[in-house]
Amino acid sequence: MKIHEYQAKNLLRKYHVPVPEGGVAFSVDEAVSLAKNLSTPVTVVKAQIHAGGRGKGGGVKIAKTPDEVKEYARQMLGMKLVTHQTGPEGREVKKLLIEQGVEIDRELYLGMVLDRSQSRLVMMASTEGGVEIEKVAAETPHKILKEWIDPAVGLQPFQTRKLAFGLGLEGKQVANASKFMLSLYEAFVDNDCSLAEINPLVVTKQGDVLALDAKINFDDSALFRHGDLLELRDLDEEDRLEVEASKFNLNYIKLDGNVGCMVNGAGLAMATMDIIKLAGGEPANFLDVGGGANVETVRNGFRIILADKHVKAILVNIFGGIVRCDRVAQGVIEAVKSIEVNVPIVVRLEGTNAKEAGVMLKESGLDFLVADSIQDAAKKVVSVLKT
Amino acid sequence: MSILLTEKTRIVVQGITGSEGSFHTKQMLEYNTRVVAGVTPGKGGQIFENKVPVYNTVAEAVKNEGANASLIFVPPAFAADAIMEAADAGVELVVCITEGIPALDMVVVYDYLCKSKTRLVGPNCPGVISPGIGKMGIMPAFIHMPGSVGVISRSGTLTYEAVGQLTRRKIGQSTCIGIGGDPVIGTRFIDALQLFNEDDKTDAVVMIGEIGGTAEEEAAAWIKNHFKKPVVSFIAGQTAPPGRRMGHAGAIISGGQGTAAEKMKALEAAGIHVCKSPAEIGEITAQVLQ
Which CATH class is domain B144-289? Predict the structure, then answer.
C-alpha cells in the first residue's frame, strides 16, 4: 500500500525522525494559514499525489510570501499533474503539503528495502541525492553504500556510522545521521514497511539532518496487524475498477488492451496475458479469480471486466485443481445469463471435471467459443477481434 | 526416482483440522501419501479420518510417529511460528502452502532456518509432488505421471499447465516443486536445481519463473557453470506493467529490475531453452529429450 508524502512524514515524526515543519492543506485558505504559522518566511508548496517526479511536472514550488503561497496553491489544487509515473492523463491534485523552507548544504539519498537475494533488509545511502536512485544504480553503482541488517539483532550503530562516514559527513552531522537512520529503521520494522525512501536526505547549513522528501510503502500482507495504517489508504489514487474488484477479493489490474482475461492463479494469469499478446492481441487486464472461484466471483469478475469499455472480447482460462471446472462453467453460464454480455467469450477449462464443464457450456444454448488448449484459446480470442 | 518427497518421507500436517488442511489431507491420503500425523494445538488426541493421530505439538508428532516432513496449512498470522516449530522439532523438510505471510516475518524465519538443518519449500506455493510416491500440497495429482523430468516453479496453476502439457505428451515427472510466489522463500531455484543435478532419475528440468527479483538470473549463472542436464524455461509476465504487483507478493518489476525480458536474456545466454509462449513448454521439452 502506498501513502502520501505528508502521511509518511507524520509517521516518521512519531519515531522522532527529523522532518521539516509543515502540514497538509485541502484548500487555498488552509494553505495560506498553514504557511503563516511556519517559522520561516520561505514556504514550499508540494502537490500530494502517489507518483514521483512531481517537481518536473510543476507540482513543487517555493514561495517567498503568503501571496505567493496563495497563488501557487490556487494553481496546483485541481490541476492534472503529469509526471513520468502518472501516464499522459496525469493525476488530479487534491491536497498540498505546506512546509518550511530549508537551507540546504548537501543533498543525499537514504533508502531501506527488502533485498530479496539476501532475504534481509538493506539500508542504502548515497551521496547522489535528489536524482533517481535507479539511475545511480545503473550508472555509478559504487556510489551506493549498503548495510544488510541481521534480523536477530536489528540495525546496529556501527552500521549507521559506516554509512554516515561513507557519505563524507563530519562532526555532529555523523551523530545526527546515525540517529536518523536508527529511527527510520525502527519506523520501518514497527509498521511492516516494504519500502522507505528519503530522497533527498538533506544536511542543513546548521548541521541538521532532515527528510526533505519521504516515500513509504507498506507490506499488504501485514496490514491485518496495522488497523491504523489502513486509514491512510487514499482511494482517489487508485483505479476505480481496481477498488471495486478489491471489495470482492478479486485481484484485478487494469491494462490498456482490448481482450479481457479471467484466470485462476497469478502465474497462469500473467502467462495468459503473454500468450494473447504473442497471438497478436492486447490484454485489457490481469485478473486472478483465485482458488475459490464460484458463481459469485465469476459474475463479479465479468462485471468488472465489462465495465472497461475497451474490452472487445473475453478469454476465460481456468486450470482446475482445487477449483472444479464444472463450478466455473456454472458461474460463467449464470453470469452471462444475468448480466448483459455483448462481446464474444472464449472459454478454456482444463483439469478437475473439465469434461463435464465442456458439456455444460455446449448444452447451455449460449454462444461460447470453447477452446481445448491455452494456444487454441489465444488464437480464437484474437480471431474474433478481427471479425 | 524423486527428490525431497521420497518413499522415506513421513508427513505431519500442521493445521490438519482446519478446512483447507482437512480437505487436502484427504486428497493426499487418496493418493497413498504417507501422512503419519496431524497437529492442531488444543486438538491433541483426536484421530483424523480414523487414520491419522492428531497432536498438540510437532515435537510430539516427531517423537511418536517418526514424522520427518511437515506440511503447513496455518493462517498467515501464525504461519511463521508454525514453520519455526517444525524446524525446532527437527523436521527435515517443511512445505508451507500459506499465502500472505508478512515479509518481515519471513525474514526472521529465513534467518532462523539458516541455523537449523531444516529445508523450507514455500511459502505461498502449491507444494511438492513425486508422482507415484505421494504429494505434499494442493496440486491435482491426476494430471501428473511418473517419469524423469523435474519441474521447478514460482507459480501454482501455471505449473499445472506445464505439467498437463508434459503428461499429454507422455513425458512423466520425477518431482514437481512449487517454490512459491513470495519475495522471501526457503528453497530457491538454485537449491532445487542442486537436488535435481544429483538425482540420477531426473534427465531434464522445466523451470518456470516470473517477473520480480533476480532469482532466475542467479539460477541462469549457476546452471551455466554447474548444471549437467538440459533446462527448459518459461518466464511469466512479459506483458506485466512496471511497479504493479501481479497477484503474487513477489511478482513486481521495481526500479527497472525483474523484467521478463531481462530474465529471458540471462537464461538464453546460459544455454537454456527459453519458451516465448507458455504453450510451448511441453513441445520444447519433448524436443530437448530426444
Answer: alpha beta
Considering only residues 73 to 112 of chain B, which have any Cβ-Cβ distance to chain A shorter than 8 Å? 76-77, 100-108, 110-111
Domain ranges of chain B: 11-121, 144-289
Count the alpha carbons within 13 Å of B190 in the hemisphere toward its beta carbon.
14
- Range B11-121 has CATH code 3.40.50.720: yes
Model ipTM over 0.90: yes
- Indicate the DSSP class of residue B254: B
Q: Is the full-model pTM beyond 0.90?
A: yes
Please check whether residue B64 is in contact with residue B7, taking contact to mean a CB–CB distance below 8 angstroms: no
Grid cell listed for A337: 445469463
Cα–Cα distance for residue pair B58/B52, rounded to 1 Å: 14
Indicate if the pLDDT at residue A322 is higher than 80.
no
Dump pLDDT digits (tens) for B229-252.
999 999 999 999 988 899 888 888
What would the pLDDT profile of A10-42 be if each residue is shown by its tens digit? Answer: 999 999 999 999 999 999 999 999 999 999 889
CB contact under 8 A, A286 and B240: yes
The rounded distance, in Å, linking the Cα atoms of A265 and A277 is 19
Tell me, yes or no, if the two domains B11-121 and B144-289 fold the same way: yes
Kindly determine whether residue A151 and residue B108, on different chains, have CB atoms separated by under 8 Å. Answer: yes
